[in-house]
Fold:
Amino acid sequence: MTDVSSARVASHLRDAILGGQLKPGDRIRQEDVAAKLDTSRVPVREALRMLEAEGLTEHEPHKGARVPRLTQHEVEMIYRMRERLEPLALAESLAQLDESDHERLEEVQRRIEGNNDVQRFLDLDREFHMLTYRGCAIDPLNSMVTRLWNSTQHYRRAYIARGGRNVMWVVNAEHRLILDAVVRRDETDAERYLEGHIRRTRIELGRHPEVFS
Structure:
């Protein structure tokens, strides 16, 4: 048995949850994870606590850890929270982003536009938005934004998979508006475009109740 750190265990489980290998409602048995990673249960237990703080797992008394399963109403409320919080993070960030950040955002957006794979799209979409927030120095706000993104990953994946290129085209158009406002450091436009971007996804998700079944 090797000495595996809790950070490594958390990274393994985080990738499995965000990548869709572990789905909402799936149990995470400490003994199975420990055996797979050839470690004891101690770092697994610590990793699960870390992931619970990130919104990726939850603990049920007498049952253990699992990936949270959200109702359609819960996801809608999370998106409403995102509509209010993320424009704040973006506004706080804008002045701190320099030309190299703008160039990196342009590069990520070009990769998004040239991509057809759902999981790759989700990874790049997340990278794009988190890059726009990287200048925000308000740690509680940053932590909340990350947690809200984590908790809705599965539902975004299901939505994008159903919509395919049609959905991706709209997202890319909205990203271009956001990126233009970021480069101009226009807080009003940036907040408005981002709020609309999140709201549109919330409304579209509401039209697909099968995503939550």
